[in-house]
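Below is how a single chain appears once it has passed through the pipeline. First comes the sequence as given, then the structure the pipeline wrote out for it. We keep one example in the README because the format questions we get most often are answered faster by looking than by reading.
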Amino acid sequence: MLATLEKQNGLHRGNLSLSSTIETFLDPFVSVGMLFVIATLFGEAPAAPYIILSLIVFSLTFPGSLFLRDRFRRMARKTFFNWILIALILLFFGEASGYIDFFHKAVLYTWLGVTPLALVAMNALARWAVPFILAREGNSHTAVIAGCNETGVRLAQNFAANQFIGVRCVGYFDDRSRERLHGIGNTPLLGNLSQLAEYVGQHHVDHIYLALPMATQPRILQLLDNLKDTTASIFFAPDIFVTELIQGRVDSVGGMPVVAVCETPFTGASGIVKRLSDVVLSLLILVLISPLMLAVAIGVKLSSPGPVIFKQRRYGLDGKEIVVYKFRSMTTTDDGSQIQQAIKGDQRITRFGAFIRRTSLDELPQFINVLQGRMSIVGPRPHAVAHNETYRKLIKGYMVRHKVKPGITGWAQVNGYRGETETVDKMEKRIDYDLEYLRTWSLGMDMWIIVKTALLVLRDRNAY
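Resulting structure:
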């Protein structure tokens, strides 16, 4: 079952394959190697300070990640942001402890600047080389799938699409005839389930994937009993994995295995990292923007009668109601059971309100919500309670976005879904991006969203 969960992420870890070995050690070796190469070029001997620094860098970059499923641009972005975080950590503690004075400054800053370029180049080379080496050396496993259903077909498609997995699916076993099977494509139907054990023994199959519905438990147990005389590795892919998992993982309750189908990404250390980054960044930003917030508050007060701060009920973490702050941009402060979403040319928006909405200055008080723990800097945007009650009935998985704290900005907003969502289709797209954020969160992703938000504010036409 653990192997099945990891398969959902497109990576097979049944053994320490060539791709996983390279993925684990490439970033640490390149980072440390570049340190000694640049030190040598500047005539610096690899003395004790450099050795200590190399050990710290190795621990911070181990294990590495090739981002094999990502496009080159996304891989490069993740690599750069990961390195920026490491560089900031090193510089902060180096300056705080005075340890930075033991290094030649030109060596240090050249290494910090050149290493991300080397990491991207080596990652790109590995993305090309790993499939080539696997194909040349025949370093792959043969597999069969028991059950030609949606789960089985999806497994076969994943094997075909991900060369880095190193698994070649040779066919299906199913008790139905080929005419009754859908999505099988050109993959052979090798026989019925009763013939599986004999085929595996005769053809030296490495892996068997059981993609049978959990409702067929007696048939699964009989199949497992028939396969006891084989050396093939057996993996169970239960039909619950037809659904999209949100931070899916295997856990245990008193030694009993349970599968997390939908869970927040911010548990354990990840939750601590997320909260610390929110507190530090929001405090820093509030100090920097306090004069700007004062000016906006004066502008709101002078533009129309009413309160400076608009308080609205929203759904927060786990769907619990919270109060969110904004600078008032309208002549009304609706917060009832029915709320009309702002549209282009909305007569309720004041002239100054239009300016602060377009530039996102109306969102600045939400950094106070972040300090209160109600919100995060990055996360799904909070919708009005009235809108939530409407869309939760229309969009499947809508409420899953509340497994994390709402954010001042989010993955949907930097991908073009900011402002009015006048159709259900547009709201569905926004929710798709919110759920993708839950599945793929990393601190580097948060930093990229913050940077991209700052750039979009200057030219975004979707807010009014």
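The radius of gyration is 27 Å.

See the next section for the split statistics.
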